[in-house]
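cron nightly-structures :: item 1 of 1
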Amino acid sequence: MKKIALIFGITGQDGAYLLRLLLKKNYYVHGVIRRSSSFNTGRIDELYIDHHNKSNFKLHYGDLSDSLSVLKIIKKTNPDEIYNLGAQSHVQVSFQVPEYTANVDALGTLRILDSIKTLNLEKKTKFYQAGTSEMFGSSKPPQSERTMFYPRSPYAAAKLYAHWVTVNYREAYGIFACNGILFNHESPMRGETFVTKKIVKSLCNIKLGSNEKLYLGNLYAKRDWGHAKDYVLAMWKMMQKKVPKDYVISTGKQYSVKYFLNLVAKELKLKITWKGKGLRECGYLNNKRIVLIDKNYFRPTEVESLLGNSNKARKELNWKPSYNLNELVKDMVDQEIKSLSVK
């Protein structure tokens, strides 16, 4: 008998990869999308066309800020597994829309959990909450499940509420509810406002002849970057365990934004040289400034260093990343060049 999965945030990077994984594993998948005047389903359109008529993939309109829609969708779909990947997920934006971020990221999680309880699905439905390394914030790396949380943005604070309310509903009501504390994970499907995709897209455009300039913030922020394809597999593995636990998912390797940029340039055979310091630091290509620092891209409270210790997941889930940073960059660059060449 097919398992039924419900994915909140199915149109995002992780939702699109998780959908592909679950369909391969012969799930019936329901996805939740927000009503919009324009379509934002580009990452999953081909799968919807291929699988909707086969009756193993269906979309529903709903919103994590609307408790009634959350309850109705869960009741209607009666899922075996719920993956909450829905969020206002941009850290910088969360400083501009903190209330909305809290409503969706924090209370949205509560709405799902309380719907499971209200519908008496505690024994049937498993729940996965997408946590984030941003919850660690200023905590000293490497960061593991035992590291103290120290959120440094409205986004991270909202996610921290979601993390602890997931633990609380697990302990109070016996719900199979687990948290994946995922460090940065990227892919060709990454949104264009995120720094890795922004770097890849701009440098690919420049490689193809564009005169554009790339504006960045903190070049020296260090992150633990993996591939989203690896990380959704870890999500699924957590949900197959008999006992729900929380896991850090990471590569255990750390690189600066500047290092990532230089790696993309190397993949594109662009020789970038650097001059200046601080806000005046610039990257040059053939004596032309192509990378500049803009103070508007700095956060009010910076997170300088995130580095994950995923030993628990590697041991208990038998999981490890299959992509290294070079392979991730190559995948992103190859797909971006292919996409730009088609246009």
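cron nightly-structures :: done
The two ends are 43 Å apart (CA to CA).
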